[in-house]
From TrEMBL:
This is ABC transporter ATP-binding protein. It comes from Mesorhizobium montanum. The chain holds residues 1 to 238 of 332 of the full protein. The keyword Lyase does not apply. GO terms for molecular function: ATP binding. Belongs to the ABC transporter superfamily. Residues 4-234 form the ABC transporter domain.
Amino acid sequence: MGSLKIENVKKAFGQVEVLKGIDLEVTDGEFVVFVGPSGCGKSTLLRVIAGLEDSTSGRVLIDGADVSITPPAKRGIAMVFQTYALYPHLTVKNNMALGLKQAGTPTAEIERRIKVASAMLSLEPYLQRRPAELSGGQRQRVAIGRAVVREPKLFLFDEPLSNLDAALRVNTRLEIAQLHRRLKATMIYVTHDQVEAMTLADKIVVLNAGRIEQIGSPMELYNSPANEFVAGFIGSPK
Ligand code: ADP
Ligand code: MG
């Protein structure tokens, strides 16, 4: 299970309305990509879904339940950030284990999950290393592994490939696609890269200045963009 419903979500920072009424449904197992220019509200929307930010109004429902008062750790969500956000003083293994330890998961179960996730992400050789001893691509795989071991209903990725060089971006993108096929989990993925959006998404949500311009499959957006903004975004590589 991992469906999501967003109902008329608005978010203001002071006088500035950053999300201006977002409505969206994501079904269980779907891979949804949020695209749009820098500053349009993609990260804010992810943070509202994760509970890291309160919306000003509107509702977020996960599997049909309103999560407005559910703390982030209880939402069944794991988030992967552009900057990896690993603990530098902990080994790869302990970075992956920490959240589970804090949640009171039994040690044997933690070991089992780390084994499965590190096999999936080819992290076995690095389990005893610290983040500083890893490449950018390896660090991002650790951050993804840390999300996987939590067995979330919903994965949120915020521009996870932005800090990687071109070759690694392709590899890591393929790994994320493979992970989605294996885990059959719901994934929401933010990017400003059209290639990532077109290749990963079941459904693309095009955001602009705090509003949704269009929602559709990659082919729908490509063949029938709702307006010039969407056409420009899908048409012109940047
Ligand atoms: P995106 O991820 O699409 O680049 P963001 O969601 O990060 O956009 O930001 C949307 C807008 O909200 C930007 O104008 C940004 O400056 C503003 N913003 C984001 N977070 C805050 C905050 N904590 N306080 C004030 N303004 C913010
Ligand atoms: Mg952002």
